[in-house]
Amino acid sequence: MKPLLRHSAALLGIAVIATAAFGHGDVAPQPVNTDALPEVGEEWLIENPYRADKVGDETWAKAVEIGSSGFNQNCARCHGLGAVSGGLAPDLRFLEAAEYGDEWYVERFQHGYTQDGTTKMPAFGEVLGQKAGWAIRTYIETRPEDGALDSHAARLTEIRDTLAKGGADEAALKAELEAIAAEVKTASGAPVADSAARQAALHLNGTPEGEKHAADALTVGLSAAH
Ligand code: HEC
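^ thats the input. predicted complex w/ heme C below
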């Protein structure tokens, strides 16, 4: 065997082992960078420590952002993009944003779920850690309820088009987006929903890039609603 071939055969062997280790459609867990979030200690908590009433709006918003990427990389393939379940696994948006829902959440996050020797959900506690677990929890509980933006879709489309064109009265649009965002409810009972209107308002910072990002956030939110 030529050295090059032997080398690729060895690589192939590694690939086969890796596939076997993460068989049954399992995928290696994706690490979540939680450096920006406050420490929560070693012992597992039973209540979300990253709610705005405990850590303030800024840290809460950071937890939503970090949780969004953590969720979409590790959980979405079973629980659905944006936590909107496609029926493969339970819809997590309805888990109560209170101690009862948290306890249930963290038990599943830590230990996963095995039935008759088959892993239905892998355990994430050891691999992702507690901070990532609660950031993902924060993201899940701030998902808007189904159809939350439906009654605003026409106006949001206009706003999106205005922003995409550029030169809009940004301050007025930002205030309008914030007012729409404030009406959106969560299915979990958490007080603030992380809707596309909220994200768009956050992007508006007086720069053309901000307007572009805001328009993109609305496009994504409006297409997800259909
Ligand atoms: C391989 C698929 C899979 C992945 C990946 C997965 N889950 Fe699950 N999850 C399931 C299934 C299936 C159940 C239902 C288990 C049962 O019957 O109780 C479940 C249940 C849950 C529950 C309990 C929900 C309820 O209403 O009872 C929570 C909470 C949960 N998962 C969170 C997560 C989080 C957070 C992640 C990512 C870090 C994740 N899951 C990744 C398949 C998965």
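The chain has a mean pLDDT of 89.
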